[in-house]
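Researcher: Go.
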Amino acid sequence: MLSDAGFAVISGGGPGVMEAANRGAFDGPSPSVGLNIQLPHEQLGNEFQDISLQFRHFFARKVAFAKYATAFIAVPGGYGTLDELAEMLTLIQTRMGRQIPVVLVDSGFWKGLIDWMRDSLLGNGLIDARDLELMKIVDEPAQVVEAIFDFYQARGFGPTARERENLLYL
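Model: Structure:
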């Protein structure tokens, strides 16, 4: 659906849901990009990548994700997903990165984390209430595309002058 809507799809390039994302784009009209990480035991790149980039270090890979993302979609995942989500939220919250939609798919999966953020982070004054509004939680694929378009209809698509300048330093 993202590919059909005109978005290139960038994933971690691995198996499972990353492969599904790449395959959907690969079969569609938009580019399918894999930001593959070299791991000693786990990940092999999937075959559904029009563009395949190799990274040795997670930090360099996260810079590529952050610099080129028009939206960040997180599906149920492990530590890597949480790491990338936290990085993206930090860049957006501190205005060191572009303001982009952050969409979490599967409300049941994310409920515990969002409750913890509300109770522990917001409850202890560690984040602002508006920081929780940086994320949109959806359950259906069509809602992902809708959330992205709604975000940019409200904000405008082009980066602000400050965001353009910040992109030079990522």
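Model: DSSP finds seven helices and six strands in the chain.
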